[in-house]
Amino acid sequence: IQNAKGGYGLTGDGELAAVMDNNFNTSHDDFDGSDRTVTAVGTITSANSSSYHGAAVSGILAADNDGAGVVGVADKADLRLCELGSITSTAGFNTLTTCVNDFTSNSAVVMNQSWGLNWFNADDLDAYISTFPGNTVTELFQFGLTDYLDYNNTDDSWMDVDGSLNTTMQTAITNYITALNNFQANGVVVQSNSNITTEVDAD
Q1: pTM of the model
Q2: Number of Cβ within a 10 Å radius of residue 70
Q3: Kind of pairing, strands 38-41 and 16-21?
Q4: How many CA atoms lie within 13 A of 47 on its CB side?
């Protein structure tokens, strides 16, 4: 990460970076620089000893260059943080859409969505696209969510009896995709591979 910063003198000064995640730490020394603001959108969960992903991602992105510890890629960028909702419920997808729309309206130049889902990796995506090359992004979400049910045995109330996404869930997903497209008109969305520790390649 530090080599990516290199000798270009890029700091993110005057720019807004956004993170959608869980378990943040807005009071950490790495975010208390006087030349930046850190704003929570609504209520966000706080980091603890076992759950600190949002804090870690925020640090990689924008930790202060204060001479101690890590330095973020954009160490002077303002931060806007939003709580990650459930991706297996209509309400959760509506929350995602609200976060993305907020980032867009506040002119964020980058949004991080490094959620590292454990049941759906790049190989799964390649296999799906090869099998169903003409399917829509919404149908891709259905494939991934169905895999999630198999992995977690969670409630499937968002599906119709034939196994397809119900209309309400389809609308929620479509709204989220539209929000991402609107953001990408002026910003960059950063996402991650899965957290599956047996993966040996990102391709």
Answers
A1: 0.78
A2: 14
A3: unpaired
A4: 15
